[in-house]
Amino acid sequence: MSSAIFKRRKIVNKLSLVLATLTMMISMVFLVWVLVTLVMKGFSAIAPSMFTQMTPPPGTDGGLANAIVGSLMIVGFATLVATPIGILAGVYLAEYGRRGWLAPTTRFVNDIMLSAPSIIVGLFIYTVYVANVKHFSGWGGVLALSVIAVPVVVRTTENMLRLVPNSMREAAIALGAPMWKVIFMVTLRSVKSGVMTGVLLAVARISGETAPLLFTALNNQFWSMDMNAPMANLPTVIFQFAMSPYEDWQRLAWGGALLITFGVLGLNIFVRIVLRQRTN
Amino acid sequence: MNAVPSEITAKEMVQPISQEALAKRMRWQRVGDFVAHRVTMLFALLVLLLLVAIMASLVLGALPAFQKFGFGFLSSTTWDPVGEEFGALNAIYGTLVTSFIALLFGVPVSFGIAVFLTELCPNWLKRPMGVAVELLAGIPSIIYGMWGLFFFAPFFAEHVQPVLMDTLGQLPYVGGMFQGAPMGLGTLTAGLILSVMVIPFIASVMRDVFEVVPAVLKESAYGLGATTWEVMWNVVLPYTKAGVVGGVMLGLGRALGETMAVTFVIGNAHNIDLSLFSPATSIASTLANEFAEASGELHMSSLIALGLVLFFITFVVLVIAKLMLMRLSKGEGRST
Fold first, then answer.
1. Which of A144, A166, B175, B300 has the most CB atoms lying inside 10 A of its own CB?
2. Which portions of chain A are predicted below pLDDT 50?
3. Backbone angles phi, psi at B86, to 5 degrees
4. B115 touches chain A (CB under 8 A)
């Protein structure tokens, strides 16, 4: 009798572990499936013309040059806006936030902002900025993306600063350094690469964001460097082209999708390698 | 608070320095401290105010819609931009159903992955496997949308939906959920793609909380003769309950607000249908489709009201997630 129970437990154990392995394999199947289709469909679209020509009207040849440049500009400016805000707020949380109500509340709110739906951020920027200046613009996109990037930078900056041993702060203070010098010349400097990876993670996060750009930067079929006007950007172009019935538009969409995905995944992997070297 | 250490060291300075110069330097140091403290505090406050500003702007923007339709807005299924009649129920229904499907498939699979990564995976494979799962989270959502529309949906329509119709579709009561035209688009497809997207989030939280279980606890269970599965199910899972629920809630928060992937495959039709095969809409996909082209003030306000509803739901879910995860880390602090 007891051997029957024993056998049953063993079978249940085997079965569940096989299932666990299976779930892992299923998720890998999906990863490979997505990446392979992306490479197969996107590779044929990648040609020099993609980087030199403008987004075309349906039925004619063209490229994604304006969208690529627009994306780079919007993401670049958003990073410039979000980095100082995120780092300074992160410094407050890690260095001054040991007592009081402000730091714990901010930390809590920041974690919520980290997973807040990005389309809501788009709505927010639309109502406070785009609706007031009465036109879609590249700056609107910059604002929306920086709102999404700030929590990422805050989070990693704080986490990195918390890894700095207290003895380092104490040593600096004992030498007579005031707190601000301790923070900006000792602790922050010692985690510089960690903070930079946080910024890169934020870049990776916002470069694929589509939803908040739909009603802030909108889109532009032509070459435009004017940040104060609607601006072409890769995600919205991909969205528009992929949803269209035109085959050459869809092909370009796949090319852009390949570009974005490998950019984002490359950044992710790069960050991991840097972080790993740091922790070793 | 920092003046004290500076004074102490100033007295011990090697180089002699005049009293006035010292006082002047100390004053500047104190000004620097004050500025650094206040400036960083300002930016922390800014992050806090951002959330308040988002809420306020949504409430203000949604006001006209709520004034016109009252709370009937939430229970009405009419969505008529021409006749300016709006109700949110279609979109709320689509959002909740797709997210529910996402969790239904996502949670067990994530649990399996976490078990595999913590218990089964050989050490040398742990890292690459973990990274691979996290890469699933790194793929932009618009890519999932394109892949879903062009590859998953046709595959689903051709190979899975007919099978579901012949099996589950024949059951009493629930059969209606699996009937209809097998087009590949609809709530079920959207939910399944969402589940692929939330798996990495839930799985990585689960893996992290499983790893905080004290080894002693597991070892004693093994010592009593428990199998790996029994240890996971009866020891690890109860111990990390709060964290696991927190992780699931985090995934739910993602699924509720996911926009692009859903927009591509849900079909974007304002209706509520029992069948999971029929096109529907979600809050996020309605916003993505209609907001930039919304004409009337009421249409726009109704869309913002939809956004407010979405924000409210995700906010509650994320707060619960956060509190659950915090409870676990507190418990961890007590037990060690």
1. A144
2. none
3. -130, 140
4. yes
State the Cα–Cα distance between residues B263 and B94, nearest whole angstrom.
Answer: 11
User: What per-residue confidence (pLDDT) applies to B330?
Assistant: 66
Question: What pLDDT was estimated at residue B3?
Answer: 45
Task: Read off the DSSP letter of residue B267.
Answer: B
Q: What is the pLDDT along chain B (336 residues), one digit of tens a residue?
A: 444 455 555 555 556 678 888 888 888 888 989 999 999 999 999 999 999 999 999 999 999 999 988 888 888 888 888 888 888 999 999 999 999 999 999 999 999 999 999 988 888 888 889 889 989 989 999 999 999 999 999 999 988 888 888 888 888 877 778 888 788 888 999 999 999 999 999 999 999 999 889 999 999 999 999 999 999 999 999 999 888 999 999 999 999 999 999 999 998 888 888 888 888 999 999 999 888 888 788 999 999 999 999 999 999 999 999 998 888 776 554 443
Cβ separation A181–B136 shorter than 8 A: no
Q: Please identify among residues 3-42 of chain B the ones whose CB lies closer than 8 Å to any CB of chain A.
A: 5-6, 8-10, 13, 29-30, 32-33, 35-37, 39-42
CB B100 within 8 A of CB B92: no
CA–CA gap between residue B142 and residue A38 (Å, rounded): 12
* Amino acid type, B60: L
CA distances for B66 relative to A235, B155, B295, B299, B305, angstroms: 33, 42, 18, 12, 8
What CA–CA distance (Å, rounded) separates B47 from A113?
9
Token pair belonging to A8: 């049953």
Task: Enter the tokens of residue A151.
Answer: 């929590």
In sequence order, the β-bridge partners of residue B80 are B85
Residues of B in contact with A20 (CB under 8 A): 111-113, 115-116, 119-120
**By the 8 A CB rule, do B168 and B209 touch?**
no
Dist. CA B106–CA B104, nearest whole Å: 6
Nearest to B64 by CA among B250, B234, B237, B304: B304
- Mapped onto helix, strand or coil, the DSSP state of residue A98 is coil
ipTM comes to 0.90
What distance in Å separates residue B88's CA from the closest CA in chain A? 16
Find out whether A174 and B5 touch, Cβ atoms under 8 Å.
yes
Q: State the smallest CA–CA distance between residue B269 and chain A in angstroms.
A: 15
Do residues A139 and A196 lie in contact, with contact meaning Cβ atoms separated by under 8 Å? no
What is A175-190 written as a DSSP string? Answer: TT--HHHIIIIIIHHH
Q: B107, B203 in Cβ contact below 8 A? A: no
Residue of A nearest to B283 (CA): A119
Query: First-to-last CA distance in chain B?
Result: 32
The torsion angles phi and psi of B281, rounded to 5 degrees, stand at -150, 160
For chain B, the domains span: 90-330
How many Cα neighbours within 13 Å face the side chain of A36? 8
Helices (H) and strands (E) in chain A, counts: 14, 0
Distance, CA of B203 to CA of A183 (rounded, Å) = 36
Backbone angles phi, psi at B267, to 5 degrees: 100, -20
B66-98 burial string, b = 16+ CB within 10 Å, else e? bebbeeebeebeebebeeeebbbbbbbbbbbbb
CA distance B139 to A28: 13
Identify the CATH homologous superfamily for domain B90-330.
Answer: MetI-like (1.10.3720.10)
